[in-house]
Amino acid sequence: MSEAVAALETVGLGKRYGRRWGLRDCSVRLPAGRIAALVGPNGAGKSTLLRMAAGIARPSAGEVRVFGHSPQRQTVDVLRKIGYLDQERPLYRAFRVGQMLRFGERLNPNWDAVAAHGYLSELGIPGDARVGKLSIGQQAQVAMAMCLAKQPALLLLDEPLAALDPVAREGLMHLLLGSVADGQTTVLLSSHAIADLATVCDYIIILSASRVLIADDLDYVLASHRLLVGSSEGASHTPAGVVVVARTSSERQIELLVRVEQPVTDPTWRVVEPTLEEIVLAYLREQSAVTDARVGECVEGQQR
Amino acid sequence: MIEPAWRLQRLVFLVAIVVVVAFAIWLAVTGSLQAAAWTTYNVTHHCVDVVATRNNCFALGQTYSTLNNFALVNLGLAVAMPALLGLVLGAPLVAREIEQGTNRLAWTQSITRTRWLLVKLGVGALACCAIVGAMAPLLEWWTGVIHRGARILPSLFDISGFVDVAYVLFAFMLGAALGALIRRTGWAFAVGIPLYALARFVVRDFARPSLVSHSIAVSPAVSPAAGGISSPIPANAWILHSGDVPLGRFSPAPGQTWQSGFQTVENCQVAAVSQVHANRCIAENKLHYVVQYQPTSHFWALQGIESAIFIGAALVLLGITVLAVRRWRT
């Protein structure tokens, strides 16, 4: 529907902290309506990317656009469209939960007060509790509820699942999915819990060492990667038309994670469909080896 | 929007109000005691007129001077009040949000940071002015007790009229601006105190005497050693300069100071064998005695202009704060 304007688009985006680059030469395009996972090891630049998209970090290079507008200018237009959950879940600790929600209500014209109260009663958080007295997990849930009640077009969630127990994780994901079920909301969420993401996301961005390794449809990523298993003797050559992402070898067998354009028919290899977790881990483990392939991935991601 | 902005600052304000009310009560009590002591000493027992003849005058005088020591402390507190109040409330306004990371919450809601800042500043500034404004009548009464009618004198001027409302506004904005620039509440406060003191000092000692053109009183040349200056200066005036200067001039000649004329007169007195001789010597030097002063009638004009200076400075600081907040990024 709104394929023309991406929910989030970055071109050559970079952020330097002193001499070190927190994010470098990042070009991704997140179409509207997607639920995208942003994965990568600690320090890969996930938070940096989200902060720049939310307009609270200044890019050192390149540019970032949210629905075609720069969040850097902090216009009300863009601010209304963004729901940002910071990694530290900042809240006014002296407020009661109800007062925190009222703060959201006063500062956001699209605020859904009924939903906000609904979320918190669903999560069992009393409205008269002091925010500072809540557990870390409950604070995260209040912060999340505030993001959702704002009803933004783009949710930028930095590690929404961190510090939550498995039950709370499921609850929060349920909440998130419920509130974006209409397909009008685009979500970009960073997380380490790759297994959890596979069930909810339809887009994936893999960051490592401040670079983008993959930014594409989850289905496409799953379809275009294969795990090739062969015996050490028989697998001296890789099949034609595949790009090796990662190689693991033991005495008996070799495992290759490859990117493929068409089905692999070479009988010397046993072809297995990898899980998302396997793909992500392969990329992150072999990040240095894939640096060259990165450019191709990123361009391909943009073309599609 | 105003309600959460107020709620954020409420606690600090409530503490500030408690402290200020305690100070007000203390001021009222010591002020009343002092007023009573003065009445007993001066009005009832006429000690000023006939000190030596009354036995209890010495004791009454002692009571009064003991209370006057309190008055000195109170004066210091009253002068410091706008500074402390403004900085305590202004410094955390932006700095605390940045320290606690809540700026990342507040600045990603649906209103611009500038708007949220202005709402918070407006609420804070209003509350500051209300507290200081409420103290103004009490301070006015108190300055009357400790120094009847002489409120144009520098230290009393600072706590009289409405100028301290301008001071508190300035201190508040100074704290807010420093907080936005330094991003640390403690440092903003620590840097704010000397800066505030410097600004006040510069304006009081260098700008205020000439904010309204001063009045001049002229009389025949005298030496300071000659004692009582019998010049026609209105009561309670703020004397800026005085001295013997050449006839036709109302300030020392170029290259001379207010002391030079005194020296000349002094030399005549020392060298002269009689007073007639001395007067002739003074007359030959063509000097007259000039007093530059601000009469009490200039009080409100001085208050108005000095308030305008500090409110202007507060507006400049407001601009700096807005710019600093708009530019803030990690």
Residue ranges of chain B: pLDDT <50 for 5 or more in a row?
none
Q: What is the overall pLDDT average of chain A?
A: 84
Q: CATH homologous superfamily name of the largest domain in chain A?
A: P-loop containing nucleotide triphosphate hydrolases
Count of the domains of chain B: 2
CATH class of the largest domain in chain A: Alpha Beta
Sheet with most strands of chain A? 6 strands, mixed
Task: Describe the structure in your own words.
The complex is a heterodimer of chains A (304) and B (330). With 304 residues, chain A is an alpha/beta fold. Chain A folds into two domains: 8-219, 3-Layer(aba) Sandwich (Rossmann fold), CATH 3.40.50; 224-303, no CATH class. Chain A has helices at 46-54, 76-81, 97-107, 113-122, 136-149, 166-179, 194-200, 218-223, 276-285, 287-303, and strands at residues 8-17, 20-30, 35-39, 61-66, 82-85, 154-158, 186-190, 203-208, 211-217, 225-231, 242-249, 253-260, 270-272. In chain A, the strands form three sheets. Chain A has a six-stranded mixed beta sheet, sandwiched between helices. In chain A, β8 (203-208) and β9 (211-217) form a beta hairpin. The relative contact order of chain A is 0.14. Chain B is mostly helical and 330 residues long. Chain B has two domains: 2-210 and 298-327, no CATH class; 215-294, no CATH class. Chain B has a three-stranded antiparallel beta sheet. The longest helix of chain B is centred in the first third of the chain and has 44 residues, at 57-100. The interface between A and B is medium-sized, with 35 and 24 residues.
